[in-house]
Amino acid sequence: MTGLLGPAEIRALAARLGVSPTKKLGQNFVHDPNTVRRIVTAAGLTSEDVVLEVGPGLGSLTLGLLEAAAHVHAVEIDAPLAAALPETAAERVPGVADRLTVHHQDALKATAADFDPAPTALVANLPYNVAVPVVLHLLAELPSLRHGLVMVQLEVAERLTAGPGSKIYGIPSVKLAWYASARLAGKVPPNVFWPVPNVDSGLVAFTSREPPRTDVRREAVFAVVDAAFAQRRKTLRAALAGYAGSPPAAELLLRAAGVDPQARGEALTVKEFAAIAAQSGNGRVTR
Ligand code: SAM
User: How would DSSP label each residue in 192-225?
Assistant: First the structure.
């Protein structure tokens, strides 16, 4: 990988564009080529992959991705950054700059119709304030995504990849598990960013898979997950009382789904949440 941006290049580019990073948009730019190499390698891209990058910023990661993939869709909400990216690519990686499409838009509003060719991989140093909603939104909108590697706040990476029984297993873990199997693929120290954040970062690698059940709608399963974790210290019999109508109704529902009513949400797999939704009848897919 050549043409990557180091600290001097990042500062010069930001000065030229008149960019000062804002907290509101989660702007912490990577100024360490080794970290970019590490992310691109961990993403396991093939030359056929079409990458979706959310928040390319000044282009640190984009330049590495352009060399590794067939195409890169870069979705950036900040107009000056979006406008400057094609020029940065043309200057730094001229041989592959035509693989880039820049989309000046909010990733939370992106839909499949925005991308041609369809993205097969999500690779991004995400804006930390919206990282979980962005990942879940894109997985819901883009069934073409087969795998991904995202950098997020370490604590969020740990939550996203936690399994049942863990204290940090919760709504993001179960919802991500609906779409994909995920693992923590490494930690990243604060000093690779400008400005330096006050948290560590983590890499989350995921591979898409078929949903655990196809006879129940995702929205119905997520409604059970939301209800179960809204009161995570309560037993499911109590936590799902509102959802089912009453505690005895919740107990019946849980027993019918093969789940212990005295268990807590944090003990259940995504498949068990799906069994509860299927049993409730709310989310049944009718063919
Ligand atoms: N990828 C770059 C890097 O590694 O240096 C920048 C990463 S920075 C953590 C996050 C980027 O996401 C910023 O460029 C920010 O403007 C952009 N961003 C923030 N919210 C966004 C949104 N909702 N949709 C698209 N881009 C967003």
Answer: GEESPPSS-EEEEEEEE---S-SSB-HHHHHHHH
